[in-house]
Amino acid sequence: MRLVLAxxxxxxxxxxxxxxxxxRMATTGVPLQRIEREELCVTNGAVSVLPDGRLGVxxxxxxxxxxxxxxxxxxxxxxxxxxxxxxxxxxxxxxxxQIGLKLRAQDTCNLLYxxxxxxxxxxxxxxxxxxxxxxxxxxxxxxxxxxxxxRTSVAQPKILPGESHTLHADLKADDLTLxxxxxxxxxxxxxxxIAGIEGPVGLRTDNARFEFEYYAGTDRGTPLSAPGKRIxxxxxxxxx
Length: 240
Fold this sequence. Notes:
The protein has 1 helix and 19 strands. By secondary structure, the protein is mainly beta. The chain has a single domain, classed as Exo-inulinase, domain 1 (Jelly Rolls, Sandwich). 38% of the residues are buried.
């Protein structure tokens, strides 16, 4: 095994060994462990396993949450491959290409998003979807979104096909920090918008193809594979 530098991280490159149990350290100092496909509940779209062990998405939309207990620290290391073959406009009618992280994903109606927009705009956006008493897409649809303004933020360059990037989110209580490509790009307080919402971390993509690895914070030093830590409930949804 050798080490290379990628997006500010020391990355282990396997020769004859598996990366399945690789543990990494984020720039925020949070220990991370790679999440495998079987540890994801894919609630919408499809997530495949590539020959090199990374994950892939080429559907107009994909949604997933981690099925094992983690902290509210998550990271996605992705390569953008361009538009998906088909397209699915958002409820607003906008055809947006994006990738991002889900935090406190209680269900499809109540969660926090940290999304990296690729087209038509290029920025990182944070929003809470909150619909008290509702749990399914049929009940809440695309209602309940509240955009969160950052305390500080940094403009992002346009992502081009073939480029590789990293997005890391660290949520402590109601304070959120986002790190993109080894620099802090968004900091802010979510406030009461997230009060009472609890759930796992996850991911979301729209109208784009990606190759990626997903990482999540270990739960207070407890191995992610420890008995009794697995979240077994996995509910399919039309979208969120």
